[in-house]
Design goal:
It is a single chain. The protein is an all-alpha fold. The protein has one domain. The protein is about 65% helix and about 0% strand.
Length: about 120
């Protein structure tokens, strides 16, 4: 099992890279935002483990599954497309994207282990 420090560093690089790609695709300069989003995601290294604590190697069930990852990715796509009108909604959008990115990065890291992820 990957430890919280490994998940934190993986979250940082995965979310920072994803943010940089989005900034580049949108024609915005790649800069501090990608580092900030990566740092925020690194602060949330074990969101799935809150729902399914890693007390043994076979702890991965629904919240550590390919089904959950797919549903979350679809939800995050909708949040990404959301055009928030006011400052509070923009903040909520960013927080949802960072939290979702951290969750997906955790699952991606777990998928690379010998136990991988269950389908459901």
């Amino acid at each position: 099992m990957a430890c919280a420090a490994e998940h934190a560093s993986f979250n940082f690089f995965a979310v920072a890279a994803a943010t940089a790609v989005v900034q580049h695709r949108e024609g915005r300069p790649v800069g501090v935002a990608s580092i900030s989003m990566g740092a925020a995601a690194a602060c949330l290294p074990s969101l799935p483990d809150i729902l399914e604590p890693a007390v043994h190697p076979n702890h991965r069930r629904f919240f550590h599954s390919i089904t959950t990852a797919t549903a979350l990715a679809c939800l995050m796509h909708r949040v990404y497309k959301w055009e928030a009108e006011d400052e509070w909604k923009r903040l909520a959008r960013v927080l949802l994207l960072v939290g979702g990115g951290a969750y997906l990065a955790h699952l991606a890291r777990d998928a690379l282990t010998a136990k991988s992820l269950p389908l459901i």
